[in-house]
Design a protein that fits this description.
555 residues; Rossmann fold; 3 domains; homodimer; 37% helix; alpha/beta; Nitrilase/N-carbamoyl-D-aminoacid amidohydrolase
């Protein structure tokens, strides 16, 4: 039995376009000998459609699109299609997340997801009713004398032998496995965090071995807002070994004979932190820009490493000809910053505008002279500069229809070392889940691995001490701890939910910890209004970060 | 049996402060003869603490605070305390939402919430494990020969006789009622939408009558970020009649004898749309500003009705002496707008700054002359003006430590008739869930009902045609349908999830519907970066509005 995995890159909500993508991939799989095909989870709607699912009209049209798709593929191999179905029982949530068995032009069987992830970026309990209890055969597909266990994403992630603690009481895979299936199929829309594929392969391999059945895992690819889906669909032998894997970060059709999975092909991949980061940023940026209807992007270049890396990602994602960089020097900008920025743009083949801001700064100073009389300069004046730059960048964005990319990193966003409506302006925050330490590593990796001997990010940009250049001789470390210390504290507090005493116990100086945690707390209002950015860690700021604002936060 | 309802206004995360509030209220109730006391849901943490709950340290300290609170109240009547408890079973979500029975200095019994709202602004399935199944007596408290049914908020909202469709299969209240309780108690944190109290009273009365038991409903009051809790705790007789009600939008202690609830007092209230709106905006603004650690606020006055109403709310919430208004006229500002704004400020007793922006506009024009060469003026130039104003307002906010209030209404935010980083700048969006039609009604109501003969919002501000004044002779209706039509379409699309065909079928012109829905769609990126605002409708933009951005949205 040859199964064709259709690893597509859907556009959320694009029922027509996604149908076409599925048809195209299914035909390709059929040509390669597939007996049946499997799409990712909710491939028809794209994942995640979020509150589009609250529109009953959208759910109804998804079902109609599924029926049309079944008809279109009537002459080909049958298809397990990820979609949604209205719950007409009058009880519970209004829809099911499901896999539709499309055979001979009809939807012949519906498999409903049981385990609904509701944590971090996932809100499935908000929308979906779980599969009803009491029918252990609910996940069993019988076809041409074969028995398949059909599961959807999280359904396969609750094995009691694999996990120390379990998230759910039910185990639909265990139920299905009791029918001794010839194959376990899993339709997924599993977004990336760095290192996640190793976890997937380890866990799915263990499950395949436990049930002595081949396991086919079909994952979505592409960027949808803050989430990047890395594809890497794979097939495991009944002994738990990885037998086949599709490429990462790209569409693919993979056909594997599950009766002899060892004949499968394992696509080469690079699981290093920097390689995964780079590919995720490039795909996430490309898809956000294009799926939003833009073709061009803008980046403000400060002369620092964050904007340099952002520009490099943009050039790779969109083509350098579709990126414009803007230099906006002030009297506090060093000559080096200007020269380094121009060199970077030249190296990458990006055009630039240079718009000095001193004359505008003067007029703001004059306008505010009366209310500010008798007050010393403080961060207010720094923020004014940053917001002048934000205004210029947005003006270029508005006039030329180019999407403005913001350049802030995760460390800055965590402690609020950034100006709301200033450098935080923009539609998409490319590196907002990369900490400063990671930005340095990525810049070096980029120069060494992607430029093929061409000049990349100038060494001067990588080597100089980080500075916002918003007042004379300013350095980040005037206001912040060393980035190695800061990033260590932030990892414990933001990503691992450690409280201050636990962080101190881990070996950090108490005063520094208190200072950093207070900065994190007071920056919450900025993050609430931040542009979406690409999730790379298990805990990014964005749709999965849901903190109260007007509160005491003694954590 | 006299029950004291402690309708407190907690600060989210403030375990120490909330404990003190509860102790104070419990002592007051004891003095008034209460035999036992009931707090709102999660009164100790404040509701909703959101992702603070992901910090195990916070959960542990909440439990310690509950123990200390029990000890502090050892000499008084026992207390049903809304709090959280760690789930140590090794399965499911890490915590329970619970009511703790604190008696004689100890936590003696724990009642766990069964039904976990996970829709709109509610994310309870993200954090909480529901009460385990299989123990119908789990919600029964036996004390001094009495039987009480203890439920938490949503637990009482799934009666099969009351609702046509049910959200959940379980009914913990029905289970508890089978033990023939002497009283049903419900700890709630039920945020307002306009008209919600009538729904609560109708439903809770029906449940009391069905089970022939008195029902005590204890609700939180106060504003927590986007949510305003209106209090209005109440008690129902076994025949279903409303027997007592605490005041709305204020802390209160209410002691009612549930054996003779007819002796209770029903606080006067005003359920008109405008009165509820006004009280919610005032309380929500006051609490957001103060709980954020601010005492003063800034409002940019345009001469239009939105900023006038926002200034009026701020003056009422914080005292006019704590509000500063800023006029930032451009060459397109009418003389009337300036005069009307000054008159408004004078009427309300608010001080003003006037900062003309023409000189700054000139410098932006010069800075952008080269890149903009050969291009016609468009909305870009309008946005530049708006962002100059945003920069000036934020500079004043930064320099003086005053929270900037934004002034946009829901109609504008829906169709994107607002400038991101411009007039959308600010920490709190006071009227962002009031549509334009509602703003007019509120302004008239305010003048007629709150000013006690003093001048309020100048009639000229209410009567003039709405205009952004960003180019000569501009009117909102040059770009938008009449507000009556626009607001009608938006109500169907945003609040009632109707798709375009359904809206056309409801009697609106197809071309207008298409245009409005496209505007709504393209404004999604602005809403993602909008300031939090006060929820007043069942469907506000904010934490409960979760739309994808880079998508097709053919709904």
């Amino acid at each position: 039995m040859k199964i064709g995995v259709l690893q597509i890159n859907p556009v959320v909500g694009d029922l027509t376009g996604n149908s076409a993508r599925i048809v195209r991939a299914a035909r390709e799989a059929a040509s390669a000998g597939a007996d049946l095909c499997v799409t990712p989870e909710m491939a028809l709607t794209g994942y995640p459609p979020r509150d589009l699912l609250l529109y009953s009209g959208f759910v109804a049209r998804t079902w109609e699109a599924a029926q049309r798709l079944a008809e279109q593929l009537a002459d080909g191999p049958p298809l397990l299609l990820g979609a949604v179905q209205a719950n007409e029982s009058g009880q519970g949530k209004p829809i099911f997340n499901c896999a539709l068995w499309c055979e001979s032009g009809e939807i012949r069987q519906v498999f409903r997801k049981t385990l609904l992830p509701t944590y971090d970026v996932f809100d499935e309990a908000r929308y979906f009713e779980p599969a009803p209890t009491g029918d252990p055969e609910a996940n069993i597909l019988r076809w041409q004398g074969r028995t398949l266990a059909v599961t959807i994403c999280e359904d396969a992630w609750n094995d009691k032998d694999y996990w120390d603690t379990r998230s759910y009481a039910r185990d639909p895979l265990e139920d299905a496995a009791s029918f001794d299936p010839d194959c376990i199929v899993n339709l997924s829309a599993s977004p990336l965090f760095l290192g996640k594929q190793q976890i997937r392969e380890d866990m799915l391999g263990a499950v395949a071995a436990k049930y002595r059945a081949p396991l086919v895992y079909a994952n979505q690819t592409g960027g949808n807002d803050d989430l990047v889906f890395d594809g890497r669909s794979c097939v495991f032998s009944p002994d738990g070994r990885l037998a086949a894997r599709a490429p990462g970060f790209a569409e693919a059709v993979m056909v594997v004979d599950v009766d002899d999975p060892s004949a499968g092909r394992i696509a080469g991949d690079d699981f290093s932190r920097e390689a995964e980061t780079w590919r995720a940023l490039v795909l996430g940026t490309r898809d956000y820009v294009r799926k939003s209807g833009f073709t061009t992007a803008l980046v403000g270049l400060s002369g620092g490493i964050d904007s340099a890396v952002t520009a490099a990602v943009a050039a790779e994602a969109l083509g350098p000809e579709n990126v414009t960089c803007v230099l906006m020097p002030s009297p506090y900008s060093s000559r080096g910053s200007i020269d380094d920025s121009l060199e970077l743009a030249q190296n990458l083949g990006i055009k630039t505008h240079t718009l000095p801001i001193a004359p505008i700064m003067d007029r703001f100073e004059a306008a505010l002279a009366e209310p500010f009389a008798g007050r010393e300069p403080d961060t207010t004046e720094e923020n004014i500069q940053s917001r002048i730059r934000g205004n210029l960048l947005m003006a270029l964005s508005n006039k030329f229809g180019a999407l403005l990319l913001t350049t802030g990193n995760k460390s800055e966003l965590a402690v609020g070392y950034c100006t709301i409506y200033g450098d935080m302006s923009g539609g998409f925050a490319v590196i907002s889940d990369v900490d400063k330490t990671g930005v340095f590593a990525l810049a070096r990796w980029y120069n060494a691995n992607t430029r093929k001997g061409l000049p990349g990010i100038p060494e001067a940009i990588i080597d100089k001490p980080p500075s916002a250049e918003l007042k004379p001789d300013q350095k980040d470390q005037d206001s912040l701890p060393d980035y190695a210390v800061l990033d260590g504290i932030l990892e414990l507090h933001v990503e691992r939910h450690k409280s201050r005493n636990e962080i101190v116990d881990a070996g950090f100086d108490r005063e520094t910890v208190e200072r950093v945690l207070n900065l994190v707390r007071f920056a919450e209002f900025k993050r609430r209004q931040a542009a979406p950015g690409i999730k790379l860690t298990p805990r990014s700021f964005g749709t999965g970060w849901r903190m109260p604002l007007a509160c005491k936060r003694d954590i």
